[in-house]
Design brief:
Distance between the termini: 25 Å
Shape: elongated
Number of helices: 1
Radius of gyration: 15 Å
Strand content: 25-35%
Strand order of the largest sheet: 3-4-5
Order of helices and strands: EEEEEH
Helix content: under 10%
Number of strands: 5
Oligomer: single chain
């Protein structure tokens, strides 16, 4: 998700279904360019953002900006079996 906004944040959350997320390994990737932000899982594009959301995000980029990626392991009540 891109989180932007001044004073913000505005959250543009989208959930993506990944099969066998708890029983198999997966490769997650994020590509950010001046024109789009793209998410892939196992080489398959699952989300692509363009337009005003990316433009606004790019306007507030600063040196030292960080990217955070979280993985939340779960059990049968959170994340699957």
């Amino acid at each position: 998700n891109l989180i932007n906004g001044m004073p913000g944040p505005e959250n543009h959350e989208q959930l993506v279904n990944v099969s066998k997320i708890c029983t198999e390994f997966h490769t997650y990737a994020f590509e950010w360019t001046p024109d789009y932000a793209k998410w892939t899982v196992d080489g398959v594009e699952v989300r692509n953002m363009t337009g005003s959301v990316v433009d606004e995000f790019n306007q507030h980029v600063e040196d030292g900006m960080t990217f955070h990626f979280n993985v939340w392991p779960g059990d049968s009540t959170f994340g699957g079996n």
